[in-house]
Amino acid sequence: MSKKALVVDDEKVIVKGIKFSLEQDDIVVDCAYDGLEAVNMAREKEYDIILLDVMLPGLTGFEACQQIREFSNVPIIMLTAKGDDMDKILGLEYGADDYITKPFNILEVKARIKAIMRRATKTAQGKGDIEYGDLRLNEEYRRVFIGDREINVTSREYELLELLASNPGKVYSREELLATIWGNDYPGDERTVDVHIRRLREKLESTPSEPRYVRTKWGTGYFFQA
User: Fold this and answer.
1) Strand ranges for the chain from DSSP E
2) pLDDT class for 175, splitting at 50, 70, 90?
3) 14 in the same domain as 49
4) Residue 127: what pLDDT?
5) CA distances from 37 to 28, 45, 187, 195 (A)
6) Which of 120, 154, 174 is the last residue of a domain?
7) Into how many domains does the chain fold?
8) How far apart are CA 221 and CA 226, in angstroms?
9) CATH code at 195?
10) Residue 52 is part of a domain; what is its CATH number?
11) Could you tell me the pTM of the whole model?
12) Alpha carbon distance 96, 98 (integer Å)
């Protein structure tokens, strides 16, 4: 079954180029040219991935990402201005899974999309649930629960939590987490990990400043407290 992508950018030449390239890999591509249109399309259809430009008319990419996160955990890649670190960090804060800087190489875009899709749809044969107290991870469907309440996490957030929870007590440095979850060739820095950890704590913990599950080993990294 073909994968489905939503490409959102107000520059129609960019959208056309990405659409053409992805369709060569049998990915079905829908296009939107402003933030509100993107939110409406994401609400009406199910996508395997969304490419979302930061600078959009109507709703900005950040606002669109935030609204989409209220009803969907579809992987979102933000398209940001080259060298604008604040855009990258804000994108992650608003719930994006990844970012790509403009101008970009379409081969890099395709590689990043395929990597995220592959991880998000990896087979779960023999996998079950990971449980610690009220916290439960359903590995087959990549869902997280606190008691009976489902926690809406992004693809990257789930992967981070699954890795840590599968190896309780093991301390991972930021460099190790970046390489394991994002890949050795990922161009981002360690702040990406910190942002995702902070967002996880805000979603999982009753008191994020005093986390029960995802703990910090000062000067070293992060670990899961069983």
Assistant:
1) 4-8, 28-32, 49-53, 76-81, 98-102, 129-132, 135-138, 143-146, 149-151, 214-217, 221-224
2) very high
3) yes
4) 62
5) 18, 12, 30, 27
6) 120
7) 2
8) 16
9) 1.10.10.10
10) 3.40.50.2300
11) 0.73
12) 6
